[in-house]
Write a structure and sequence with these properties.
The chain contains five helices and no strands. It has 121 residues and is an all-alpha fold. Helix 1 packs antiparallel against helix 3, helix 3 packs antiparallel against helix 4 and helix 4 packs antiparallel against helix 5.
Length: 121
Amino acid sequence: MTIITTILIAFVALEHLYILWFEMFAWETRGKAIFKGAMPAELFKPTKGLAANQGLYNGFLAAGLIWTFFITDEAWKFYIAIFFLSCVIIAGIYGALTASRKIFFVQALPAILALIALHIR
């Protein structure tokens, strides 16, 4: 992996660790600030469990991307990175279509750039 690819994958992984944190542990505080206006404030408490579940999935995406930094076989590293970046892209596109177009730019686009960089090598 090139340094640019590594940086882009690290960025996507860190972004998903941040999403894990606020969805699992700060949904009623930071979540309200992030989704201000998109969701009524009174819905944050009853949806805390749902958000934590989503956060856990984001953590799995981050873990998979971080895992690529520890794989020594280049082919294996390449394919694992493709898989997890593709998962992020699909989730980001789905979120953009069903929740907010902003999700495409925040989640899917960085993963698309990382996937492109991965293939340019």
